[in-house]
Structures are given as structure tokens and as C-alpha cells.
Here is the input.
Amino acid sequence: MRKNVLIAVSIGTHFIELSRVARLLKESDRYNPVIFFQYGYNSLDRDVRVCSEEGWQYLAPPKKGKSQKRFRRILLRFTPPTLLFPLLLSWKLVEYRYQSYQADLLLDEYKPALMVSSEDVYLYILIKTASARMIPSVIIPFTIANAREPAEAYFDRQDHIVSASVINKLVAWKYPQWVYNHRGRKLLRNPAYDIVAIEYLGFAPNSPWTYNSEGTVIAAENDFMLQYYRKEGLAPERMVMTGALYDDLLVKVCKDADRRRKVLYRELELPSDRPLLLCALPPSQFPRKCEFRDYEQLVGFWMQALASLSGWNIVVRPHPRMTDEEIEPLRKFGLAITKRDTASLVPLCSIYVASVSATIRWAIACGIPVVNYDVYRMNYEDYNEVGGVVTVDDRMSFLSAMRRLTTDTDYYETVADLQRRSMDQWGKLDGRSGERMLKLFDSIIQENR
Here is the structure.
């Protein structure tokens, strides 16, 4: 009899990687994946369709009506400041109590032998509820992240700045583990009302600023990530080297790259005699202090910069978070656009262009030169030691880096050689990551029994 494995999804980018896990489980002779979508998000309908097509069990939240969202915005806008904190706290307490009730029902109904997620953020209540029932949880990371990432994202947000209000100061004093000092500014990991609610209910994480501090085991994908997690203070005994499922896909695509590239070119009606430059277009992260006033201006510059390159086939892969309605305006720039799985595209290209994306690690593993345009000036340090990743943070440097890589053969070969030196550290390309992951699941469940 197949054992149920609960796969928890909170955002669209989780689903892309966790869908690989669901396929692995379904193809085995012993596991049944159950997809739990905890929240609604832009691409949820698309992901639910995938579940239906694949024959996976799934649970999705009901859609929130526009009138409900509008009512909440109006209420927040006209609520007096003295009543805003109690109102938001009440809402959060209701939400978290419902999540706790939902977690109990979910675990009662499906009785999973194991729970899988891509990170513990958003899932503290479910993970802790499962742990209380002796249900182990495996985190299969979908990205590279440390405290610097949320600190940059929240740096200018008033509800995260400790000094912005008396309530924030009081919460920071009461719960110092939620405070992080970044660039001389003390920040709260979550808004004050959120922290008070989750602490009051007893579902707070042990280390709020540390990604994946909760859960039983972390499936480490390569040597770099193993060291990365240790540096972040995660216990070494929680980490097991498995490789990542995208590694197996990279291996498969690399072996058949010429044919797959030809198929892609035919599909997108591109010349067959040009090398491929693949661009992973970043999503909007505005408001943000950078060179651009809004996302429309950023996209306009980025797409025009790509269109100015000659002698290359340019293919743009919009961020998975973007909906069809958001993608449609990109077509006016005349560049080829695809929604294929990014991991299936990276091995086909000769240059990869992205913005501080975790997908850059795929290009490194394949020895492909990267232009990393830190367009939002996040200043992440993840790729600083990788010689084959050319990082820039302004328009002119971006244009210069792309033009040099696409026109100067000697320079391209130098960067490619530097990238190849980092391949082994960033990828486990032996085609056996899925096998190791199933063995990990087997051993955890057996030990738990």
C-alpha cells in the first residue's frame, strides 16, 4: 500500500520544484503525493491544472473575491492608527488559529508518513503540528537564501523598521530573536502584529531570521549549499547530501542538448545557426530604490538591451510568478518568449542572464557563463567567489558585459573556463539525485516507525 506524502506549497516558485518531487513519488511503487496549496497566488489555477493532468491529489484554497479584498483595503485605510494594531493582530490570530485547525484536519484525513516543503517560512504551524504528531518533515530547498534577503526586501518598510513606531520597539524588546541589524538599521522579520500573534499561539520558529530552522531534515543539493547552510548555523546532523532533482534533469538535457535546441528553435521560429542567450526575466520587486522608477521602465530597458544584441538567438523566460496577462506586454519587444521549465532550457544556452536568481546555480553547474544584473541592488554575496558569474548593478555595466560576452570570443572563453572550475561544487550531475532522495524518504520513515 502506498504511503501518503504531504507536499506543502505556499507560492508558485515552490510548486515548480516540488512538482518534480511529486513526479518522483508517483513513479515510485510506494508513495502517493498529496499537494496542499496553503495560499492562493497568481499562478494557482495553472498549478492546479498540472495536478489534475498528472493525477495527483490536491487541496487548494477557495478564491478570494475582489469585493472582499477591496473591503479589507478600505477598512485598513480608514481605521484610526490607535485601532489598527489591535485590528491586524485580531485578524492574524484568527488566521493562525484557522491554520492550526486546518493542519489538524489535514493530518487526520491523509495520515501522511512524511511531509515535504521547499522552506519553513509560511509553514511554521503545519511543520510544528506535524512534529507534535511525530510526522517527520523534509525540506528540499528551492533557492539560496539567508537573512540578508528578507532584510534587503524589508529595509524601507515601516512595519519592519524597529525605530518606526513605539509598538515595533516594544515588540523588538519583548522578542529580540525577531530583530536583525542590517546596514545599521534594526529590522523585524515580520510585522509586529504578526510576531505577537504567532508567539502568543506558540507556533513561532526557533530562529526567525534563519531559513529552514524548522523541520526534520534538509536535503542538501551540493557542496556549496552544504557549507552555506552550516555557515547559517543549521545543525550538520540535519543535512543529508542528496543532490537536487533538477540536477537529474540537467544531466538528461545536456546529453540531448543539440536535438532539444533545434526543437526549441523551430518552436520559436529562430535561426538554426546562432548560439542561444537565455534570459530569466526578474519579477517586480517595487517599491525599491534602484535605477528605475517602476517595473515597466525596468522591463523596457532590459528587453531593449537584449534586442540590441546581434548574432545570437535571444530567448526570454518570464519569472514563474508572472501571469499570462503580465507576460503579454513583453511580446511588443519582438523577442522570443517561452514558459518552458527553466531547468530544461539552461543547458541549451551559451550565455545565461538573470538577476540574483537562484537559477544561476544551474548555469554554474553546467559551466555556462552568466551575466548577473543585480537590478534591484540587493547586494547578495552568493556568487561573489564564482569567476564565471559576471555581476553588475547598473545599466551601462550591464550593456557592456553583455556586448563583450557576445562579441569577444577570447573573453567569452576566459569566463567559460572560470565557470567550468566551479561546476563540481555547484552541481551533483551523476543522474542519481532522485534515487538518493527516495532512499532518504525511506530511511526517515523507517526510523520514525
User: Anything to note?
Assistant: The CA atoms of residues 91 and 339 lie 37 Å apart. The chain has a mean pLDDT of 94.
